[in-house]
Write a structure and sequence with these properties.
Two copies of one chain form a homodimer. The first copy, chain A, is built from eight helices and 14 strands. Chain A is of the alpha+beta class. The model of chain A has no long low-confidence stretch (mean pLDDT about 90). Chain A folds into two domains: about 5-165, 2-Layer Sandwich (60s Ribosomal Protein L30, Chain: A), CATH 3.30.1330.10; about 175-335, Alpha-Beta Complex (Phosphoribosyl-aminoimidazole Synthetase, Chain A, domain 2), CATH 3.90.650. The radius of gyration of chain A is 20 Å and the shape is globular. The first copy, chain A, is about 30% helix and about 25% strand. Chain A starts with about 20 loop residues before the first helix and ends in a 13-residue tail after the last strand. A seven-stranded mixed beta sheet of chain A has the order 9-11-8-12-10-13-14. Chains A and B meet through helix 1, strand 2, strand 5, helix 3 and strand 6 of A and helix 1, strand 2, strand 5, helix 3 and strand 6 of B.
């Protein structure tokens, strides 16, 4: 069998299709969603393309999420592949409204010759991050591939938990305020700077952290007012906002000056020519909230150590559904939806 | 930091440690079990090193299992990486007693340039095997790594399901009979023959299949009499029997002539110099059953299309706990416990 090449239609997987943006969504929709979405499933399944799946369970929801972690380099300022593996999965569960973690699984694939010393360091980080998040690895799997068949180590984590009330990424309504729980762009730019061995002034560190305790506080204090949540990982804040706006059929006016950025992120973004709005975060959430409760939610977030820099950054509107309108202070323009993360293997 | 090398103690991961045998168990115990096992968890967790984890849930058990599939080649006689990804996870759940599947997750890692035609073929196989098993992919993740950073495609599947009564791999008691649900060695030898491009007579095909309907029939008809179950994947029947015997603290007398083998497996094993008892199966179960119910269970299994070749192959004894004693018909000898699967990337 040979594939008939159609001019202009790629016949091979591209790096961009792994970047978490529009190109990846198109690939997944084409290949994975179409058929599985047609199969009977009583709950939030693959078709929703949310942060995870949810199955009604008594008067609660069983939530499941999975992520493979291929980050390069495996050790970077502020974290490592072990910390990101636990945090990424715990955060995806939190985004769906999980307040009780049942456990996570850990599937490790190693390259022959991988240093045991590094493996022990990663294992230590997995344990520490589980303790920090209040969860535990309940089952796992180990595979070894030959030299040159895989680059070092890859870790898949799947998490399960219970949500009393499900939070989706498609519930934004006109008038809602958009909150981010802290500074944006730290993870993506820290990893890029490390990869390019940039000598930078200031402290550029990944924000990678399990933020389930922060989200639990938000849900407990203002859960009824929260209309949508998503963690701005691959493709960054821009990709998440676009996805939330498209699914919710609202527009979003984003106040550029209100988006919290560290000086290190701002200057590194300028040096590398990369917009911090477009790169991955690993310890942040984007939250939609009813306008009249926005200040209260902000207070709750800011009183938590992981939410000190939380800020109201935008407002939902009925016009221009699916679009993000960037208000620069000098005028307004449409924010482009990223095709994908600027660099592969960011998480 | 440099690791201090201890003479005779490896400092790097070896292929053998991914082979599912003793070497792998030692690595996992050293690195993963020690600390996670000490963390609070109300259920069957990592320390049990069973086919999955189980969490008490009302009067049932929520069972979770995870596997990364790195098989090479990705298409082989009788199956492909898609079929094995669904079957492996569904079967691990069945081994723990799951009779209601809640869903599986699918994390795909692709190499840049991977042919979309192959991806579509794998996706088709994932869908078909899900339909066969009566489950659905509920959530997923897609990553792309650069050329040469991963060999083609790797798929992680995590499954969750409910068990009314948990079945473990450590419940064998002296007197119990050991049943296998069909012929042994088909998967491992089919993949090896394909890898070496052997031209063989006869039909050597992998047995890869979801056997949850077979196991459900066994549990419904003879559940109370079943004392242990395990699927003989990496390391084959020998590795599974050793693990079950060690955990249960019984010996097992294995009747060599009773182990079902196809002619193709027998002859290929001889050509390659590989004992079919030591290679992976992907559509079989090893079941421990109370002696007085063994024939009844055998009848149930044989009346199911996936259990036609089921056979009673051994008996548990109180003596020599942890050992497998091979009765060749001419005498008895200890069956060696494999260090690991003879070849890597078998599943």
């Amino acid at each position: 069998m040979t594939a008939t090449a159609i001019p202009g239609v790629p016949t091979r997987v591209t790096l961009k299709q792994g970047g978490g943006g529009r190109a990846m969504r198109a690939l997944i929709e084409r290949l994975f969603i179409r058929e599985f979405a047609a199969m009977p499933f009583d709950g939030v399944g693959l078709a929703a393309m949310d942060d995870g799946a949810a199955i009604p369970f008594g008067d609660e929801f069983l939530v499941i999420t999975t992520d493979s972690h291929v980050i390069h380099p495996i050790f970077f300022p502020g974290g490592d592949i072990g910390r990101i593996s636990v945090s990424g999965t715990v955060n995806d569960l939190a985004m769906m409204g999980v307040t009780k973690l049942l456990g996570i699984t850990c599937g490790v694939i190693l390259e022959e010759g991988f240093p045991l010393e590094d493996l022990e360091r990663i294992q230590r980080s997995l344990v520490d991050t589980c303790i920090e998040a209040g969860t535990v690895v309940v089952t796992g799997d180990t595979k070894v591939m030959g030299k040159g068949e895989i680059d070092g180590i890859v870790i898949n984590t799947t998490g399960i938990g219970l949500a009393k009330r499900l939070v989706r990424d498609n519930g934004l309504r006109p008038g809602d305020r958009i909150i981010v729980t802290g500074t944006i762009g730290d993870h993506g730019l820290a990893v890029m700077a490390k990869r390019h061995e940039l000598q930078l002034e200031g402290d550029l560190r990944s924000d990678v952290a399990p933020i389930n305790s922060l989200i639990a506080a938000a849900l407990e204090g203002a859960g009824d007012a929260i209309t949508a949540m998503k963690d701005p990982t691959r493709g960054g804040l821009s990709s998440s906002l676009h996805e939330m706006a498209q699914k919710s059929q609202v527009g979003v006016i984003l106040q550029e000056s209100a988006v919290p950025l560290t000086d290190a992120v701002r200057s590194t973004g300028e040096i590398l020519g990369i917009d911090p709005l477009h790169v991955a975060n690993e310890g942040k959430a984007v939250i939609g909230v009813r306008a009249e409760h926005a200040d209260r939610l902000l207070d709750i977030l800011r009183s938590h150590p992981l939410g000190r820099d939380a800020a109201i950054i935008g407002t939902c509107i009925a016009e221009r559904p699916g679009s993000i309108i960037l208000d620069t202070g000098f005028g307004r323009r449409l924010l482009a939806e990223p095709e994908g993360e600027p660099l592969p293997r960011i998480c």
